[in-house]
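Example 3.
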Amino acid sequence: MVGTRLAKIIELAKVIRSKNAGPFEITFDIMFADAGIYDKVKNSGVITSKLIARLYNISHNEVLVCRPYDPAQAFKITIRRPTASGDLMESDVYGCQQHMPLTTIEVPWEE
Amino acid sequence: MDEIVGLAPSGSLGSGYNVESFNRALDANPDFIGQDAGSTDMGPTHLGDGVLFFPESSYRHDLSLMLNAAREREIPLLVGSCITAGTRGQLGQAVAMVKDLAREAGHSFKMAVIDAELDKDYLKKRLADGAFQSLGPEGELTPADIDRSSHIVAQMGVEPFIRALEAGADVIIAGRACDDVIFAALPVMKGFDKGLSLHMGKILECAGLSASPIDLQEPLIGRIRNDHFVVEPGNADLRCTTLSVASHSLYERTDPCIQPGPGGVNDLSETVFEQLDERSVKVSGSRFISDSVYKVKLEGAEVIGYRSIVMSGIRDAIMISQIDDILEEARERVRLRFGAVDDGEYHLDFHIYGKNAVMRMLEPETDHVPLEIGLLINVVAKTQDLANAVAMHARGTLGHTSYPGIITTAGNLAFPFSPFNVPVGPACRFSLYHLMPLDEPCECFPMEMITVGGA
């Protein structure tokens, strides 16, 4: 197909972040400034629980939430924390530096 | 009453806030000032050990400005989750600070103090009535888990705040509270929609984190009306945008649409964010759905040992290329001296900064070779002395160990300060994170009304 390529999510999204949601979960937000771009990413169906499980090398049922949220033009993803906040083996109490694997997501893009 | 105006000085008591923006925000004639003073976000030690997040001087500084402003204007000041974890001891520290500040400034007022720490006998009686639903910890909660915890608090809803306001409190100093209810209490008491009130509270509780550019130390103003609310930053140079406000509505929440809190869930699935003018955003459509049984979230933490750390750096490329094997050998040497790791006496952990210290098992890039490594030796043991001994033994072993191809015999670790070993004190773990049903919303949040000053 002429004009179809794989677009990197980091070029499409305005915010890609991770944060603790309570002591037992890490939550990710992928947010878009442009409604058209958000719709295209949403309609591509690329962002799924299965993809998240693969990116973080965790099991499918550790991905608790993975859904688009139209009012904020955003994807919301929540996973179970590998260790509870501050417990032995903790590495990121706020969970705010766990987002980089999401930046490798690619979306089929027709110009 | 057509609207209620709330003012949030900062996202976290003690973090400081922009005084110029705060004074400008006061021109909006707020009906109340609300301030969140705690969270579990900073980990279990503030709950398990009771240590405050900031030094006491930081809290006094922040409290002083907002207390003076509230008293001058004769509007309520509501502070929730005092201070950090909302334990009884931390609540007492906040009360003492407010009394001191009032005396220094010559204020007199009625102060409601609301306790959110739960007694263990009460909890065990409640547990005997039926299991608590876990929001994280594995396995069923037992009375032994309760006994092992040093402090257990419950997150209060709007009701204990409303009870205090109705009793004529000028200042409310509360233990652990759900963040948004601090700002929702007065609007709900005055009959405004609970879903909108709580959503406005969710935006205000982190203050300038909903602004653009983002800044926790920037005050935020919220105006709730019949069918919507409007938020704007106190600082004229900052804006609220639909993206910044919608973004904060998702912040730290598991699910965007269903946000559970004391007594029910706030449903944001039909929420609409509109840019009202350049600096303010209008929000409508959020709906509160009450649960048939009123439940509160419990948070508990226990002391699991004492922590000791050593921070060091490695620049030798030959050592870096073998780092995993070298650390494994060091573990073995520690085991020979102190016994098996993780037999309950001590836990030895290496954080390899530059390699995978930040993401650990979630790290997908495993074959990266760093130029430098920051090595954190992190030990938790039954006693502080044992933790120090294990950390220093691991340090000594690594500092002078040999490995294939070694070209330096003078030492392997670069230390950035002296002494090398830092005893950290108690290490804690979250032991409870459960839902507990109540017969009525104020059941476990006793209030004391205190007359401060010469009123």
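Chain B touches chain A through 44 residues (CB under 8 Å). Chain B has 13 helices and 19 strands.
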